[in-house]
Design brief:
Elements: E1 5-8, H1 15-25, E2 29-33, E3 40-41, H2 52-57, E4 60-61, E5 66-67, H3 74-87, E6 92-97, H4 100-108, H5 117-124, H6 129-139, H7 141-145, H8 152-165, E7 185-189, H9 193-209, H10 212-222, H11 226-229, H12 238-241, H13 247-270, E8 275-278, H14 281-299
Parallel strand pairs: 1-6, 1-7, 2-4, 2-6, 3-5, 7-8
Helix pairs in contact: 3-4, 5-8, 6-8, 9-13
């Protein structure tokens, strides 16, 4: 079992704050980030990472793992979590985040293919989704049927795995189609979308004031990986940094994209019948606190 409990849900729902509070009140609890962008050093503002003071109070994992110039996949995350469990099986890990695939892979210990840079470089030379999609249909008909013919990024990823492993990309993900029984308590925080939308706009505006633009400019100067550059809340401001649009336009686009992301995250987690949804933080707190108390009693 890679995790003991998980707190999931859409961005800006209050997960991180609640998880940190629990970890402070229950010494020994460590937090494992289920956010695909928190792994990158230097991407601090729009990932809502824990502050340095918070990280002095609580042990965090999968935060600031690699440079933003590097690629880091869900397979890499899963490998690190397995190693963490092997090294210290007695630790209590509370997973927190909104990246659905990270959560599923870690909670259910799925088989996830890695990254194959040489094959990826070859695929990057072709910019015609029609040509690549036809190849995907030949190599993995099922995978192709699940992929939008115009989604070049997803088509390339599927072909990368097909070419490198000799297996259909879809063969690695049968676990996503079912939800087996799991000892991991999963609690979801639900916030009405009107309130979530308000929080998202407010948060992005405050991040801009706190130095998000300067952070992005620094990342671009140092070099940033393709995966990191796709982060919602970052990619929308690249055009502004390049002088191609106004700050207002970039901010408006970032707000719209983040709101859509929140809805995708909600739909992803809603499909999992094992998630216990709470529309009040106090209810989510009580559920997780009882689980922590039981674990503490067993440990004693």
């Amino acid at each position: 079992m890679n995790l003991d409990a998980a707190l999931v849900g859409p961005t800006a729902s209050g997960k991180s704050r609640l998880a940190h509070r629990l970890a402070v009140e229950f010494p020994g609890v460590e937090i494992l980030s289920l956010d695909s962008m928190s792994v990158y050093r230097g991407m601090d503002t729009a990932t809502a990472k824990p502050t340095l003071d918070e990280r002095r109070e609580v042990v965090y994992h999968l935060v600031d793992v690699v440079s933003a110039r590097e690629e880091f996949s869900v397979a890499d995350a899963l490998q690190r979590v397995r190693a963490l469990r092997t090294e210290s099986p007695e630790r209590f890990l509370l997973g927190v985040g909104g990246t659905g695939l990270y959560a599923r892979a870690i909670i259910d210990d799925l088989e996830i293919p890695g990254i194959f840079p040489e094959v990826r470089a070859e695929l990057d030379l072709c910019h015609d989704p029609v040509v690549l999609y036809e190849e995907l249909r030949r190599l993995d008909p099922l995978g192709a049927s699940r992929t939008e013919p115009t989604n070049l990024r997803r088509i390339r990823r599927a072909l990368e795995v097909c070419r490198a492993t000799g297996r259909p990309f879809s063969s690695f993900g049968p676990g996503l189609e079912s939800y087996p029984k799991s000892p991991v308590l999963q609690v979801g925080l639900f916030v009405e979308f009107a309130e979530l939308d308000r929080r998202i706009e407010e948060r992005l505006s405050s991040w801009v004031e706190e130095g998000l633009i300067e952070e992005i400019a620094g990342l671009l100067d140092e070099g940033v990986s393709r995966a990191a550059l796709q982060a919602v809340g970052y990619k929308e401001f690249v055009a502004y940094v390049a002088g191609e649009c106004s700050l207002e336009d970039s901010l408006r686009e970032a707000v719209a994209h983040t709101r859509r992301l929140a809805r995708r995250q909600w739909r992803w987690f809603r499909r999992d019948p094992r998630v216990i949804w709470c529309d009040e933080e106090s209810v989510a707190y009580d559920l997780l606190a009882r689980a922590l108390e039981r674990t503490r009693d067993v440990g004693d």
